């Protein structure tokens, strides 16, 4: 059995491979390589042995089969602490492999660059590469696996300083290798899943890989670490693709609240605006102009709007910028576009964050995942548009056309309020919100308190049914003119009767929008 150390190199990304190959040759390694990589190394003047000279079998099927051979994998997988393994290598004339340097076909880049060419994508599903990486990682005690060109400088430094890669480093590289092949497989699975019409089903195994993006300053509190993670191959839209024009970096809480604000305005007519505090709207409005939408959204609850997040679903023009600039303090302003004049004005306050967001198609957001201890709760997202044709009046008084529009606006906002959620709207503007209370009547009272005199003649939306008539009675005393709610309570008849007694119009949606 040959005592010289052997390195197998097969890389799609050839960044830095010349430096590593040169280092290995200086240290007495013999290099075995495959087609394109072998040609590249020879062009650089390095001596290379072809894989087919080791296997005594040619590459076939357009390169689909080249390293899948016992002469290669036995050399990688042999446990050299076992006499039997060493003897078997000797009997079959197989040289051990000490280092496997492999990175995989560019599957991800192919999907991104050629999404409509499935044949090209399939040819970039690597088979031999993951087998080599996994074999070397399994046998890390005797073989070093290297799958990331970023690790080449560390490998070179270690070899040139000590002559060997110690077991601790080999184990760390093995960990990285299995993570790499796992991510690669999940990306392939995700690509296949996109062509299968089962995205609304809950799969037996939900495979997901998240890649860390930027680190955040901290989490919900300063002692918590946090970062943004992205799903490979998922569209880079919404908060994953935001462009920031001004202000310090976004925090964990900023991102959560901005997402909540963007969810609301994404489901409202253009132009609309929403103001968020702690993932709940304290104001929202639809209007004829962006400036009027912003003004009315901020006027919904000016006290709570202090330090809030504003999202607008139309371009921020000069007049809208004037309204936003006059606000006492806003953490973040998000919009799909900005005029140069608006940016010039709003960047005068250095800590105010201005970001641009692109809409996220509803069919591209599938799962709502909540972590629990050692597990997760997973559901399909409540992101669809309700079919208003199925909404039905249940009281003697039928809403007028104008009241219908108000009720639908209130319902669109209410679905984004933390349960128990109550929203009061008047003239296309949120005037009161009751969120997260343990009883629905308390949410009603809180919303009425926020609205004050503006409750008189307003419409009320509830994210779930009223179990008793007390909530409607409190609304009636404040002058609420109409109610929209899912219905479905055992007490529906009593609640409807309370509305009829007060002359309130009530609409049932037959769909609930809890948001915990």
Explain what you see.
By secondary structure, the protein is of the alpha/beta class. The chain has three domains: 6-193, Methylglyoxal synthase-like domain (Rossmann fold), CATH 3.40.50.1380; 234-360, 3-Layer(aba) Sandwich (Cytidine Deaminase, domain 2), CATH 3.40.140; 390-508, AICAR transformylase, duplication domain (Cytidine Deaminase, domain 2). 38% of the residues lie in helices and 19% in strands. The protein contains 19 helices and 21 strands. Helix 8 packs antiparallel against helix 10 (167-193) and helix 18 runs parallel beside helix 19 (492-502). The longest helix has 27 residues, at 167-193. The radius of gyration is 31 Å and the shape is elongated. The N and C termini lie far apart (66 Å). The relative contact order is 0.06.
Condensed summary:
The chain is α/β, with parallel strands linked by helices.
Put simply, the count of helices is: 19
Fraction in helix: 25-40%
CATH topology term of the largest domain: Rossmann fold
Number of strand elements: 21
Average pLDDT metric = 91
Q: What is the name of the CATH class of the largest domain?
A: Alpha Beta
How big a fraction of the residues is strand? 15-25%
CATH superfamily of the largest domain: Methylglyoxal synthase-like domain
Strand order of the largest sheet: 8-13-12-11-9-10
Task: Calculate Rg over CA atoms.
Answer: 31 Å
The termini sit apart by 66 Å
Number of structurally distinct domains: 3
Sheet/helix structural class: alpha/beta
Q: How is the quaternary structure best described?
A: single chain
Indicate the overall shape: elongated
Largest sheet composition: 6 strands, mixed
Poorly predicted sequence stretches spanning 5 or more consecutive residues: none
**Name of the CATH architecture of the largest domain:** 3-Layer(aba) Sandwich
């Amino acid at each position: 059995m040959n005592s010289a150390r052997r390195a197998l190199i097969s890389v799609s990304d050839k960044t830095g491979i010349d430096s590593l190959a040169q280092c290995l040759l200086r240290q007495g390694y013999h290099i075995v390589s495959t087609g394109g990589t072998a040609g590249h190394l020879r062009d650089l003047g390095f001596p290379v042995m072809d894989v087919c000279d080791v296997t005594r079998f040619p590459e076939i099927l357009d390169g689909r089969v080249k390293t899948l051979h016992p002469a290669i994998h036995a050399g990688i997988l042999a446990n050299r602490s076992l006499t039997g393994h060493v003897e078997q290598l000797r009997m079959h004339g197989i040289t051990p492999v000490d280092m496997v340097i492999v990175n995989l076909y560019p599957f991800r880049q192919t999907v991104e660059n050629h999404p409509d060419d499935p044949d090209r994508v399939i040819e970039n599903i690597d088979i031999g590469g993951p087998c080599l990486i996994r074999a070397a990682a399994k046998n890390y005690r005797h073989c070093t696996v290297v799958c990331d060109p970023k690790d080449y400088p560390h490998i070179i430094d270690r070899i040139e300083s000590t002559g060997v890669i110690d077991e601790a480093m080999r184990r760390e590289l093995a960990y990285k290798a299995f993570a790499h092949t796992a991510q690669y497989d999940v990306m392939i699975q995700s690509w296949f899943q996109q062509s299968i019409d089962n995205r609304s089903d809950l799969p037996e195994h939900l495979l997901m890989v998240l890649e860390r993006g930027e680190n955040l300053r901290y989490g919900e509190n300063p002692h918590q670490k946090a970062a943004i993670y992205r799903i490979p191959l998922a569209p880079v839209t919404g908060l994953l693709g935001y462009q920031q024009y001004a202000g310090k970096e976004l925090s964990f809480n900023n991102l959560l609240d901005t997402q909540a604000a963007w969810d609301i305005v994404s489901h409202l007519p253009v132009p609309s605006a929403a103001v968020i505090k702690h993932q709940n709207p304290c104001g929202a409005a639809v209007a004829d102009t962006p400036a009027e939408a912003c003004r009315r959204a901020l006027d919904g609850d000016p006290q709570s709007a202090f330090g809030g997040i504003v999202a607008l679903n139309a371009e921020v023009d000069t007049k809208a910028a004037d309204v936003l600039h006059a606000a006492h303090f806003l953490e973040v302003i998000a919009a799909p576009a900005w005029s140069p004049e608006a940016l010039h004005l709003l960047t005068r306050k250095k800590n105010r964050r201005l970001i641009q967001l692109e809409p996220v198609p509803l069919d591209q957001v599938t799962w709502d995942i909540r972590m629990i201890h050692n597990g997760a709760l997973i559901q399909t997202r409540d992101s669809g548009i309700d079919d208003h044709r199925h909404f039905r009046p249940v009281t003697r008084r039928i809403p007028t056309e104008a009241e219908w529009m108000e009720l639908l606006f209130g319902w669109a906002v209410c679905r984004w309020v933390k349960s128990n959620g109550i929203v009061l709207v008047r003239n296309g503007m949120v005037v009161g919100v009751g969120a997260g209370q343990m009883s629905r009547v308390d949410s009603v009272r809180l919303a009425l308190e926020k609205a004050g005199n503006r409750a008189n003649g307003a419409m009320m939306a509830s994210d779930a049914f009223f179990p008793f008539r007390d909530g409607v009675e409190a609304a009636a005393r404040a002058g609420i003119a109409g109610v929209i709610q899912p219905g479905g309570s055992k007490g529906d008849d009593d609640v409807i009767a309370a509305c009829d007694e007060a002359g309130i119009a009530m609409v049932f949606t037959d769909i609930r929008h809890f948001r915990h």
